[in-house]
Amino acid sequence: MKVYLDDERIAPEGWVQVRWPDEAIKLLRTGKVSHLSLDHDLGDDQRGTGYDVLLWIEQEVALCQFTPPAKIEVHSANPPARKRMQAAIESILRM
């Protein structure tokens, strides 16, 4: 399954649209997510950001031997957030 986290952009054809981090994490827990594309700013920081999903993945990989999606990408237009998210992805891939 391909999961696309964004509050404004429409998911590409063949992708499952989610709008909040908890929705993405729920799908990740199934173990069926092969591709993950994340936006950072989702319109309500109280509900979380795309970076929060990466923090969850990082923790699960480190502590629970979680297998992350084969492909994780960032489509955020926020340059500082994109850089931080890319660093998290690199950390996940090193584990």
Description of the structure:
It is a single chain. The protein is an alpha/beta fold and 95 residues long. The protein has three helices and four strands, in the order E-E-H-E-H-E-H. The protein is globular, with a radius of gyration of 12 Å. The model has no long low-confidence stretch (mean pLDDT 97).
List the helices and strands and how they pair.
Layout: E1 2-5, E2 16-18, H1 21-28, E3 35-38, H2 50-64, E4 71-74, H3 79-94
Parallel strand pairs: 1-2, 1-3, 3-4
Helix pairs in contact: 1-2, 2-3
State the end-to-end distance: 22 Å
Counting H and I runs of at least 4 residues, what is the number of helices?
Answer: 3
**Beta-strand residue fraction:** 15-25%
Low-confidence stretches: none
Estimate percent helicity: 40-55%
Largest sheet: 4 strands, parallel
Strand order in the sheet with the most strands: 2-1-3-4
Count of distinct strands: 4
Coarse shape: globular
**What is the C-alpha radius of gyration, as a whole number of Å?**
12 Å
Find the structural class using helix and strand composition. alpha/beta
